[in-house]
Amino acid sequence: MATATAERDVARGASSARTIMVVEDDPGMRAVLRDVLTHEGFQVHEEPGPERVTAAVERVRPRAIVLDKEMPGSNGIELLVTLGRRHPSIPVLVITAFGGSAVRAEVIRAGAAGYLEKPFRMAMLLDTLRAITETRATGR
After folding, report:
1. What are the backbone dihedrals phi and psi of residue 92, each rounded to the nearest 5 degrees, phi first?
2. What is the DSSP letter of 45?
3. N or C end: fewer C-beta atoms under 10 angstroms in the chain?
4. Residue 138 has what pLDDT?
5. How far is residue 88's CA from residue 74's CA, in Å, rounded to a whole number?
6. What is the pTM of this model?
7. Which of 2, 10, 20 is CA-nearest to residue 59?
8. What is the mean pLDDT of each run of 10 residues along the chain (140 residues)?
9. 16 Cβ neighbours under 8 A, 6+ residues apart
């Protein structure tokens, strides 16, 4: 479900430069991410699972995507690869509670622009999002 503000802005054709898509199956974690990102001035579009993400990206055109790696029926890697093929200019930050160096290497090879292990500090999430969106914007 998207926030009402993001839906109105997208409907009016507003720039999605400040829109972040959050794909997270845990409603509590999704709410925390939404609150933190909204507080920092981002518009947030939420998806509770991978099923409608591809269509939502076409509609919303987010600046970046925060993607949970482990969701029921999906490990997130397939979605990450699909997003990379269809929308290579949209950076994806993968978050997971099931991490480690092998998982980190796997998601980076699959095309993630960033990776964080849960639990993480929200300041780290914000710093990483800023870094990956600024890098993509400047082409570095």
Report:
1. -120, 125
2. E
3. C
4. 59
5. 21
6. 0.86
7. 10
8. 45 64 97 97 95 95 97 88 96 94 96 96 96 72
9. 9, 10, 43, 60, 61, 62, 63
Sign of CA dihedral 109, 112, 113, 114: negative
CA–CA gap between residue 96 and residue 119 (Å, rounded): 8
Identify the pLDDT of residue 17: 78
Contact 69, 107 (CB under 8 A): yes
Strand order in the sheet with 43-47: 43-47, 19-23, 64-68, 92-96, 114-117
| pLDDT of the residue at 73 | 81
Position 77: which residue type? I
CA distance 104 to 117: 9
Query: Which DSSP category does 24 fall into?
Result: -
Residue type, 67: L
Q: What is the pLDDT of residue 61?
A: 95
The residue whose two tokens read 């898509």 is: 21
Provide φ and ψ at 76, rounded to 5°.
85, -25
Q: Which amino acid is at 91?
A: P
